[in-house]
Amino acid sequence: MASPPTKQSILHLYHSMLRTSQSFSSYNFRHYFVRRTKEMFRDIQKETDEAKLAAFYAEKAKELAVLKRSAIVNRLYGGWKLVVEDQKPSRERSDS
User: Fold this and answer.
1) Which residues contact 17 (CB under 8 A, 6 or more apart)?
2) Is residue 34 part of a domain?
3) Total tally of structural domains belonging to the chain
4) What is the pTM of this model?
């Protein structure tokens, strides 16, 4: 059996998943995956069973790879920004 992941490696995985979730161009996907990632890692935070931690880490590492590929595809085919997203202010030209 493989050794259980360290707290630092789980935190690294968590931050990688959050960073990847933030890279989606679609507002809905981005916020869904950020919220989902936070909920998943909140549930495992107090787990002490090494077998469950190892299984969780392996599953989420595979999921991170899928998330990265999905984010790339989403950026390639991303649509327009929604009204609820922060829009960059457009500069108006003054004729005076």
Assistant:
1) 33, 37, 41, 60, 63, 64, 67
2) yes
3) 1
4) 0.79
